[in-house]
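Researcher: Here's the sequence for the chain we discussed earlier.
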Amino acid sequence: MIPPALILVDSDQTSTSPSSSATATLFAGLADRNANLFRRLGLPLGDPAAWLELPSGRVVRIVRDLEMDRARARAHEMSANPGAVHCPADFKPEDGELSSDRETAVAQSIAVLMKQEGVTNVIGDRSLPLIYVYQLAEVGIRVQYDAALGVIDRRPKSASEIEALAHAQHVTEQVMFEVCHRIATATVDDDGQLFQDGGLLTSERLVNYARRGFMERGFTMSHGAIVACPPHSADCHHAGTGPLYSGVPIIVDLFPRDELTRYHGDCTRTVVHGTPSDEVIRMHAAVVKAKAAAEAELYPGRTAEAVHLASDRELIAAGYQSHRGQLTEAPSIQHGTGHGIGLEIHEPILLDFGGEAMLEGEVFTVEPGLYGKRDGGVRVEDMLVVTQNGPRNLNQLPQGLNWE
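Model: Thanks. This is the structure I predict for it:
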């Protein structure tokens, strides 16, 4: 039987939350994977850790004992009110020792601390692992889910975050140019296959080339990359495989992470070796026009849905239809217009149907595209900041098909 105190799911905190005087906020897990926890600790720790705000307003960080000095130093760098740093052994159960399993021990120590502080209710975000919920429930503390926690506060980016994203996008563009230029300047055999440096130019070879380029710049490609030509580019998220060909659109989508700041770049360009077909030229012109229309909507208070609708209107006016969820023979609209970006590649909110009002300082990718089995795919993507004075584009690369 699940303990009745295990979890209360409720987006409206006002109706069911206990008194705020007994309520704490908790972020916990592995900070090298959990962006909400990393943003508070400032360290990409690979061992279980936690960040708590107690009812008194006091902040407590719980980390492995050998990380305590580093966590304290980072806390003082990040805040004028850094709070306290502890290890799990500082909060042992009265009737026994902490578990030898590190994550269980952290969860147990949190439960002990909460009881000591008189906490009866804990608010957690969408990333809170069940092990922490369970240990709190074991001592009678209710855990409540807040859908906005760790989302709203991360949507508007600070000046330093925007600087980190701008740098990540600048480096992404450097490698993007090199990849697209290699495609455009390759030699071609009688079958239309591309060759570079005496070898067949494949999707895999170019992805590895990009990976090396990013590694030299302190970036990683943990989520891979897309280098895709027909027929694979008819599927908007196909990573691409095998030989690349002349005369067809090749989608290059790079989205690396800066290992120093943990912020991402994300840029897409479409390149054609040789002469593109009339249809590909028409597709590309429609995509670029749709992108400009979408970007013109990036103002605080306007909706993310309005951004998507602006893009759709231009693509539909150019003669293309939306067929999301199915591959089509002729070029069609297959996805929304973009997404938030930051410590994660895809962050709320989406530039799509139902997208809510945008906030000043939010950063989005804008990436309309068209895809079909007959002609392949065309997509162009930039990263932009929402400001009161209009969108600020963090990209500088050209958007054309020719990269010679």
